[in-house]
Amino acid sequence: MRYRIRHETIYTYAKQVDLAAHMLHLSPRRLDFQHVAHARITAEPPPSRTSWGVDHFGNQVCWMFLDKPHDRFAVTVDAEVEIGFPAPPLPELTRPWEMVAADAMQAAAAEFAFASPMVPEGTGAGAYAAPSFPPGRPVFAALLDLTARINRDFAFKPGATTVNTSVDDVLRLRAGVCQDFTHLMLAGLRAHGLPARYVSGYLRTRPMPGQPARRGADQSHAWVSAWLGGAMGWVDLDPTNNLVVQDEHVVLAWGRDYGDISPVRGVILGGGAHSVTVGVDLEAI
């Protein structure tokens, strides 16, 4: 599938901003299964200085610095991407989840098996996930079951949570958005010793013919990438929509949780209160 992406983020400030520095995770990630034909980030007002780099997780990062007064900051991404996620394995052919968890401690994937600031230890997510992980169950079968349960048990409800809502609060509310369901699933998997990454990106805005509308398609999206072992690598799952990620998602970045790869993060001098609006269109070509 080939997609055209347009992602616009607009910050409006109550007072003038004198200086600003922004860190952007907005460039689609170049992967074996994701070819980036082109990608361009523009801003208004134009930054006085822009620099590029790669973070610890291999994601492309853009830094923008603004030294002129402004009361509005808009960032727009225009890109064209071709994707072809590999077909997932048959669940019964994957190894028991306990063996995968044991192997993870000797692999580079172990980095994603531990707690992180927004996915801490000691939440109730481990107990919630436990019914999906009976002894000896193939790991992919367990992952599919947990993905389906989160989709069934939690209501997609924009406004019910904020970017700082904890995993335990999501469990109590039984509602949230893609970020919340992703953090919940990460916490449940890591409680069982299984490596899992937070993936940010986009979801096809208009569904394929005959398919239901997807939840979270008009904003930047989030889902889980889980490790199946050294031989099988990673598989991506979207608990918000109960999907194995294949041809409707575009990857921006991955990290331990949202805090590692938030699309736009900044430090400003001035500004006062602010509002933010985000619009995303992922159009199939």
Brief rundown of the structure:
The protein is an alpha+beta fold and 285 residues long. The chain is 19% helix and 39% strand. The chain folds into 2 domains: 2-83 and 262-284, Immunoglobulin-like; 91-261, C8orf32 fold.
What does the model show?
This protein has 285 residues and is an alpha+beta fold. The chain folds into two domains: 105 residues, Immunoglobulin-like (Sandwich), CATH 2.60.40.2250; 171 residues, C8orf32 fold, CATH 3.10.620.30. It is 19% helix and 39% strand. The strands form three sheets. Strands 1, 2, 3, 4, 5, 13 and 14 form a seven-stranded antiparallel β-sheet that branches. Strands 11-10-9-8-12 form a five-stranded antiparallel β-sheet. Helix 4 links the parallel strand 6 and strand 7. Helix 4 packs across helix 5. The longest helix is centred in the middle third of the chain and has 15 residues. It is globular. The N and C termini lie close together (8 Å). The mean pLDDT is 95.
Query: Level of helix content?
Result: 10-25%
Low-pLDDT runs: none
By DSSP (H or I, 4+ residues per run), the number of helices equals 6
Query: Mean pLDDT, rounded to whole units?
Result: 95
- CATH class type of the largest domain: Alpha Beta
- Tell me the series of helices and strands, N- to C-terminal: EEEEEHHHEHEHEEEEEHEE
Radius of gyration: 19 Å
Task: Estimate nothing, just give the exact number of structural domains.
Answer: 2
CATH fold label of the largest domain:
C8orf32 fold
> How many beta-strand segments?
14
Which structural category do the helix and sheet elements fall into?
alpha+beta
Strand content: 35-45%
